Each structure stands twice: as C-alpha cells, then as structure tokens.
C-alpha cells in the first residue's frame, strides 16, 4: 500500500486493506468475516448514489487496483486464473452480500459511471476499473470531470447584489430546499450575466457551486446527450454544484435537445432564458429577473461613482437602466479614460457606450452632429420640438421628485410622431434632439421589423425595446406606414393580429423610459385612435421658397469655391431639403471634376439627375433666370 494516496493510516487505506484481506481469505478458501471500516468520502457516495454494501466493496476493490501495487497478484490468486484485475465474477465470489442486480446497466455502479466495464471480455469476466474522477474524489481531490471541460464554465459567487436580485436568489434557494418542489427553476429575463449572478447567489446560499452550459453545446445524438446528463448529475453530487443551462433563442433542434436534457436531470438546475419557454413537462418554478427600481439604481451608480454629486447620479439613473455588472464596467472604463475631464461627462459617455451594445445589431446608429441651427422649420414646429426635449430632460424631476409617476402610473414615456414628406427633415430633426439630449440616435426601419408571420413582429419589437431600455438611445422608427393604417373591420385573423402589432408598439412606446419617435409620410392614413396615444405630433411641411433659399445657403459650405451661385434662383426648384442636399453635393462633384468653382450650370446638371430619380421633369419656371 503506497503512502501518498491516502496513506497507510488513512480511513481509505484501512478500507482498502480490509477488502484485500477478503480477497486473501477467498484465495485460501476461508470464510471472510471482515468488517470494512467507514470512509467519509465513500460513505457520501454510498448515500448519494444508493450503493449496496456489495457495490460499496466492489468499488473499493477497483480503487485498490490503483492504490496498492500488490492488488493485481492478489486478484489473480483469488480468481484462480490469469485475470490479474478486478471483475464482477471475483467481486461476487469474495465480497459481502453479493447480488446480481449490481451488474446491470441501471445499477448505481454502471449508471453513474462509478466504474467502467470492459465488456468485450464478458460481463462477469471483463475488467472493472474505477472511474478516474471517482478515485480522485475518494482521495479528497475534487475537480471537474475532464470530459466536461470546454462545455461547462465555473460561475463565481457575485458578492453583493441589489435587494431585488437577492430576493430572486432566495426564492430559487427556497424552492430547492422544499422537498416537494421541483428541482428545476426557470429564470427568465435580464441578460445572461445577471441571470448567472442570481443563480450563483442561490447556489451559494445552499452551499453549492454553479457551472453554466449553453444549449448550443448540447449533443444532437440522444446517447451522447444522455451520457452528458449522467456525467453532470454525478458532478452535481461530487462537487457539489448546480447547473445553469442557458437556452437563449435556440432553434427547434436545440430546444428539443435542451428539453430532453432537462427532463432527465434529477439534480438542482436553473434554466436561463430571455423569454419564457414553451410549456413542457420539464418545467419547474418560473422566476422572472426583477427590474431594479430607481432607489436600487441610485445605489449602484453612487457606489460605482462615489465622487459624483447626488444630482449627477440622479441624471444617470433617469437615463440609464443598467445591471450591476454593466455599471461596474462603466465605472472601470471611466477611471481609465477620465484624464482630467469632468467626471459627470465621462460617466455619461461610459453609460452610453455600455447601453448601446445591445442595440448596434438591431438598428442603424447615427452619431448626432447637427444642431438647432441646421433646422429650417417654422417657429411653431421648433417650439414643439423644444418642448419634447424638455419632457425628456426633466422627466426625473417631474416623475420622481414631484411625484407624478405615482399618480399617473401609465403612459409616462415620451412619444412623438413626425409627419411629412420625404426629405422634409424628420431624421435630421431627430439627430438634433439626440445631440441636445446627449444620446445616441438609433434608426429602426419598421419595414424590416414587420413580419408576415404571426407573432414575429412583436418579437422583433420586443428585442428593440428590451435593448433600448438600458438607456442612452433616442429611438426613431422609420417608415411607420409599414405598420400603421386605418383600422378596418376585422375580417380574418391577419387583420386582428395586424391591430395587435400596432397596439403592442404603442404600448411599448408609452412605457419606454426614453424618447421614441415614429415617422410617416401619410399622416392621414393613421387611425385617430392611435394618434391619441402619441404625446406629440409634429408636422413637417414642404418648405416654401423662402425656406428653400435658406436651406441652400446652409447646405453649401463657406469654404467651397463658388461662382455666381444664387440661392434665390436655386430655391425655385420645388424639392424638399433632402433633395436639395443631394443636388448640392452632386453639383459640387461635377465642379470638382471640371476643376472649376461650383456654378449654376453644375447645379442644373445635378438637378436633372435628381429629378429623373424622382420621376419628374424640370419646368421652365423652376430654372428661369439660371442661364
């Protein structure tokens, strides 16, 4: 018996010697009334996997083969053959209370892979070998099974959590402590890191670790998936630990694999997902990741940015709704990049950078550079736009400091409809407002969001708003006509679902923390019932000749070389601001190609090109006096 693995005086060493003594007694043909002393690690295996006394001793015999150099010779002597290794036949003959059921594939020894059987040599005469992971467990060296490396990752305990998250973790832990409750818990919502933090806190409360597995990594083959489930269930006992299975947006095959894996699990398990899974037999208790209230958000930001004033922290809380790990990341990036700059400004930019990550793949982000001076609109429209900005900027004061959120409760989101023809400045105006508010502008093309498949449009919209709720974005839903229209009599299911899609969009806009804007070219086509749910409606009129002349003056840069360029004559073109910009830019390229200053003839050529695109013809009155 070697000294290093357990030592001659250890409990495991004593148990191994007792088992080998039984072998020796069997070799001599003598009865073996020898008690095998208890071993804490082996007793834990016995209790957890339901080993019989015979299975316990058979497992010890296999361990002896690895721990004692003389075991092979003693096995050969006891079996009366050249088989110098443990077998079921030898164990049945030499160990206490033998029973045939220990040999079956569903017995604890083989089901939980405590031993490996070389059945090529026969069921009773094939070589038995203790699983390496089990041997190390008996020797007090726990580690994750090597076959699970690369599939599972260890999730550390998160430390402090906001009260709402801690309560969710306590609910999960209490469900595992309840003997009558299912061991499976479905954790829905939030982001993967937040779900992992909550699950880890729940596991820690039960004295368990946490490992995570993605549904994408589950084997497609049922036999391989069953083996993985068994290996994990064994690990859950040996470590001990809980598994977090993330099933974010799996395809049909992945979902089926996840359901099969979950159904076979008999240990504590958390199923994490963005949305509730379809009903299944494998579902346990469902717990939603709670939204942090303003007080919890305030504490997060104040702890992360301790040098900021309460007013600056309040502004951050009013704009952003970020989970703790993202706020911590924003604080870390702020400390790296502050470099003497105002901390409040750097913290705001850090919040923007963290918040935009979920939206970049859902819409087109525009860096807002335009200011109020770039807009050519009537005073009435400008007053309404500035009022919209005030509603967004002062919502923390009005909603929370003055208590309006408690009395109104619903419809607190700032919503606006920009109605006007193409090129009248709707997107430019949204850019101006985003810059004024210090936000990103994300343009969401509704024509790409709307789907002919029932339920898909709401799913796409939910992704947009869920990502935008983190804050830092002005949402501009372009081409609202793709979704809105006069509500007609419901004649079939498609009409009914079309109305539901519009209602869902408006509901999310009204609940959105930031500013959400819809654009349309056909205001008259919109149902008045829907218009009543929009807080602001801004009409963008087609620019008159005076407004067009002003746009021409602003669109041509001061340092651009020009010759006899007359904004008053150019304003005779009856086109909107977007077309004016196109003509000005095309004319500049034509002039640059000729190596000359920008002249009226260059603008005339560019105007012909733009009008052909618009399927229109230049009239004599529009170019009167040009040449």
Structure write-up:
38% of the residues are buried. The chain has 27 helices and 14 strands. The longest helix has 19 residues, at 493-511. The model is unreliable at 1-9 and 486-495 (pLDDT under 50). Strand 12 (473-478), helix 22 and strand 13 (515-520) form a beta-alpha-beta unit. Helix 12 packs parallel to helix 14 and helix 24 packs across helix 26. It has 5 domains: 11-138, no CATH class; 146-287, Rossmann fold, CATH 3.40.50.300; 294-358, no CATH class; 372-540, Rossmann fold (3-Layer(aba) Sandwich), CATH 3.40.50; 545-613, Helicase, Ruva Protein, domain 3 (Orthogonal Bundle). The strands form 3 sheets. The chain has a 6-stranded mixed sheet with strand order 3-5-6-7-4-8, sandwiched between helices. A 6-stranded mixed sheet has the order 9-11-12-13-10-14. Strands 1-2 form a two-stranded antiparallel ribbon. It is α/β, with parallel strands linked by helices.
Summarize this structure as a short list of keywords or feature phrases.
627 residues, alpha/beta, Rossmann fold, 5 domains, 6-stranded mixed beta sheet, 14 strands
């Amino acid at each position: 018996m070697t000294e290093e693995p357990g030592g001659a005086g250890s409990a495991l060493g004593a148990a191994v010697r007792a088992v080998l003594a039984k072998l020796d007694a069997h070799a001599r043909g003598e009865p073996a009334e020898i008690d095998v002393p208890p071993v804490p690690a082996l007793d834990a295996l016995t209790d957890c996997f339901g080993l019989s006394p015979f299975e316990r001793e058979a497992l010890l015999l296999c361990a002896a083969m690895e721990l004692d150099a003389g075991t092979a010779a003693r096995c050969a002597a006891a079996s009366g053959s050249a088989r110098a290794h443990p077998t079921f036949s030898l164990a049945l003959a030499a160990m206490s209370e033998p029973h045939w059921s220990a040999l079956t594939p569903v017995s604890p020894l083989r089901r939980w892979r405590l031993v490996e059987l070389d059945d090529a040599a026969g069921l009773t005469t094939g070589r038995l070998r203790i699983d390496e992971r089990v041997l190390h467990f008996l020797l007090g060296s726990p580690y994750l099974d090597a076959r699970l490396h690369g599939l599972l990752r260890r999730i550390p305990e998160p430390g402090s959590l906001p009260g709402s998250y801690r309560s969710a973790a306590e609910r999960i832990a209490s469900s595992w402590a309840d003997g009558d409750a299912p061991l499976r818990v479905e954790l829905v919502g939030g982001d993967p890191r937040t779900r992992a933090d909550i699950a880890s806190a729940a596991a820690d409360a039960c004295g368990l670790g946490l490992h995570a597995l993605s549904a994408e990594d589950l084997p497609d083959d049922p036999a391989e998936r069953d083996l993985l489930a068994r290996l994990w269930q064994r690990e859950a006992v040996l470590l001990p630990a809980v598994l977090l299975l993330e099933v974010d947006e799996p395809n049909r095959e992945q979902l089926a694999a996840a359901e099969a894996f979950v159904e076979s699990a008999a240990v504590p398990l958390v199923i994490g997902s963005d949305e509730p899974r379809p009903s299944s037999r494998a579902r346990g208790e469902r717990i939603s990741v709670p939204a942090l209230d303003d007080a919890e958000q305030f504490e997060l930001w104040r702890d992360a940015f301790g040098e900021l004033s309460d007013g600056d922290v309040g502004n951050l809380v009013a704009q952003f709704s970020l989970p703790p790990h993202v706020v911590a990341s924003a604080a870390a990036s702020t400390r790296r990049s502050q470099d003497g700059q105002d901390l409040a400004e750097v913290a705001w930019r850090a919040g923007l950078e963290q918040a935009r990550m979920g939206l970049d793949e859902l819409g087109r982000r525009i860096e807002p550079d335009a200011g109020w001076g770039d807009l050519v609109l009537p005073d009435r429209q400008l007053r309404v736009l500035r009022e919209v900005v005030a509603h967004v900027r002062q919502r923390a004061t009005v909603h929370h400091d003055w208590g309006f959120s408690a009395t109104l409760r619903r419809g607190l989101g700032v919503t606006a409809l920009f109605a006007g023809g193409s090129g009248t400045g709707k997107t430019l105006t949204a850019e101006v407002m985003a810059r004024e508010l210090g936000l990103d502008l994300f343009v969401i093309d509704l024509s790409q969001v709307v789907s002919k498949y029932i339920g898909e449009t709401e799913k796409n919209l939910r992704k947009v708003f869920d990502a935008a709720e983190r804050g830092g974005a002005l949402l501009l839903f372009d081409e609202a006509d793709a979704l809105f229209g006069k509500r007609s009599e419901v004649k079939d299911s498609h009409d009914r679902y079309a109305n539901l899609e519009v209602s869902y969009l408006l509901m999310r806009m009204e609940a959105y923390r930031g500013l959400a804007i819809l654009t349309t070219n056909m205001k008259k086509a919109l149902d008045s019932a829907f218009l009543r749910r929009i807080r602001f409606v801004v009409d963008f009129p087609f620019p008159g000749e005076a407004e067009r002349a002003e746009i021409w003056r602003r669109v041509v840069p001061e340092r651009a070389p020009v010759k006899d360029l007359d904004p008053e004559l150019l304003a005779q073109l009856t086109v909107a601001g977007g077309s004016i910009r196109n003509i000005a830019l095309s004319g500049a390229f034509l002039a640059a190609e000729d190596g000359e200053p920008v002249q009226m003839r260059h603008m005339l050529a560019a105007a012909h090109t733009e009008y052909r695109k618009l399927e229109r013809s230049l009239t004599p009155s529009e170019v009167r006096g040009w040449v």
